[in-house]
Every structure is written in structure tokens, then in C-alpha cells.
């Protein structure tokens, strides 16, 4: 089984191209907010960035449950339209009106790591649609996905001042399950390179991983960053489309009951 996996992985990595080391997410490159207007970051009430998010409707921001749990809306800011964290003149920083957390959420590595922040006013930035159950093909091993965020650019390094992006292929569920015993294939997928080098990292959680103009996943967890055989783990969003639609599509001032 292990041999077969190694073979399958090697083939995938050849077809995906080798992971170039260290440009300066880990091993990524700069991304513009104009090309990714739905990418947002979350800060605490002192302005310190700690997670990412995605605008999925004019008044709704999707993030990871583990980014929102235990925080009150007053302690949170959604910063949209700002590529450079220090550029306070560009974009907006808003306090969410309320927070919805998936009712089954316990911990990131147990699944259901999704939350929706509802805003009082519509954001003037284009939302990104969530992948649906019918988008199964986007989760096939080898599919190239693009992850974005302002997280650390090395495992023990600082978070990024600028929005970064990295392209990583979806890995076979069998590989993710072998490397992470707690991996739940119905709720998660993993993406990256067997060699490591390119990955999301702390501070990227809650942020988008995208393909074909759709939000395929939410950055969720992993062991360290860009380590060999320890790919990033993402929320398999198609699985949550049914749970999320009533929340995301609700009229701006309806919902959101806390769990
Ligand atoms: C984190 O702690 C985190 N390498 C995000 C992504 C990954 C690991 C940890 C994936 O936010």
C-alpha cells in the first residue's frame, strides 16, 4: 500500500511540477487584492492579524470555526480590500454583527471547522461562490488549488505584511489518512507536496483555497508548515454547502442564531 502511494504521489508531483524552494503563505509569492477582492484578514481589537477569511456574500465572511470560537464580535475586525496590512488608507475594517459557528464544531482536526461572520453593511467587494456537492472534480488528487493569506512565511517566522498565494495540488485521501491518523476524508482534504516547501501556515487559517472561481476549501490545520510528508489540511467545503447556504444566502439582517 505504501509503495503504491509513493508511486502515485511521485507521478502526481511530476505532473504538477516540482516545488520551487523558498521565495518568499510558505514558498509563495505576492498576490494582488484587485485579482482576489474576496480575500480578507481578521484582526483582534488591537489590530493584530490572526486569521484569514473569504467574502461569500455582500454581508457574509466565511472563516474557520477555530478562528471565531471563544471570541465575541466586539473583539473581532474583518479587514477587506487591503493587500498591505499597514496600508490603513485602503479598504475597510469592520466589526461583525454576529458569528455563526457550525453546531458540530469541536476542534479543527475533528472537522466542521467553518464559521460565518455576518456584517451589518454590505462590503463593496466581489464575493466568491462556495463549491457545491456537484464540484467533486475539484477535489480529485492532482487538481491545482491556490491558497491565499497573510500568514507566516516560514514555520517559526513572522506573518506576512502583504497578501501571498501559493499553488498546491490536492493529495490522495489515503496519503492524508496515513500521515494524519485523525484525518476525516468526508470533512477534509489535504494539499501540498510530499517534499513540503510550499504550504499554508499559522495565520492563514480561515482563509481561502480556490480553483475555477470557486471557494474549494478553508485553511484549517496541519503539523508545522511546509514539512516533508505533512501537507496542509483544508475544510472540504462542498460537504458543507447544505449547512452553509441558509446562513450565507439569508437576507442580511436575518439569522444568525449562535449555536
Ligand atoms: C495554523 O496554525 C496552521 N501547514 C495553518 C495551516 C497549517 C498549519 C497550521 C498548514 O493556523
UniProtKB/TrEMBL annotation:
Protein origin, superkingdom: Bacteria
Gene3D superfamilies: Trypsin-like serine proteases
Key words of the record: Disulfide bond, Hydrolase, Protease, Serine protease, Signal
Residues of the signal peptide: 1-21
UniProt keyword rRNA processing present: no
TM spans (from-to): none
Gene source species: Lentzea rhizosphaerae
Pfam families membership: Trypsin (PF00089)
Residue stretches making up the Peptidase S1 domain: 25-249
Protein name: S1 family peptidase
Coiled coil: none
The keyword Signal appears for this protein: yes
PROSITE patterns in UniProt: TRYPSIN_DOM, TRYPSIN_HIS, TRYPSIN_SER
Amino acid at each position: 500500500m505504501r509503495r503504491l502511494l509513493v508511486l502515485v504521489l511521485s507521478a502526481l508531483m511530476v505532473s504538477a511540477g516540482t516545488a520551487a524552494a523558498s521565495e518568499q503563505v510558505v514558498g509563495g509569492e505576492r498576490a494582488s487584492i484587485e485579482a482576489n477582492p474576496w480575500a480578507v484578514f481578521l484582526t483582534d481589537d488591537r489590530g493584530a492579524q490572526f486569521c484569514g477569511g473569504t467574502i461569500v456574500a455582500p454581508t457574509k465572511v466565511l472563516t474557520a470555526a477555530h478562528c471565531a470560537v471563544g471570541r465575541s464580535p466586539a473583539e473581532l475586525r474583518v479587514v477587506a480590500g487591503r493587500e498591505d496590512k499597514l496600508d490603513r488608507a485602503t479598504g475597510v475594517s469592520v466589526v461583525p454583527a454576529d458569528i455563526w459557528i457550525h453546531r458540530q464544531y469541536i476542534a479543527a482536526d475533528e472537522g466542521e471547522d467553518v464559521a460565518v461572520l455576518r456584517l451589518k453593511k454590505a462590503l463593496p467587494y466581489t464575493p466568491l461562490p462556495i463549491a457545491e456537492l456537484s464540484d467533486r472534480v475539484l477535489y480529485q488528487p492532482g487538481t491545482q488549488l491556490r491558497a491565499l493569506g497573510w500568514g507566516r512565511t516560514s514555520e517559526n517566522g513572522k506573518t506576512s505584511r502583504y497578501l501571498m498565494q501559493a499553488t498546491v495540488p490536492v493529495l490522495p485521501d489515503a496519503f492524508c489518512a496515513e500521515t494524519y491518523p485523525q484525518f476525516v476524508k468526508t470533512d477534509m482534504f489535504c494539499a501540498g507536496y510530499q517534499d513540503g516547501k510550499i504550504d499554508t501556515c499559522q495565520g492563514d487559517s480561515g482563509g481561502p483555497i480556490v480553483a475555477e472561481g470557486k471557494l474549494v476549501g478553508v485553511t484549517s490545520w496541519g503539523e508545522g508548515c511546509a514539512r516533508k510528508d505533512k501537507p496542509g489540511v483544508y475544510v472540504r467545503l462542498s460537504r458543507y454547502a447544505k449547512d452553509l447556504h441558509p446562513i450565507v444566502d439569508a437576507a442580511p439582517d436575518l439569522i444568525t442564531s449562535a449555536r
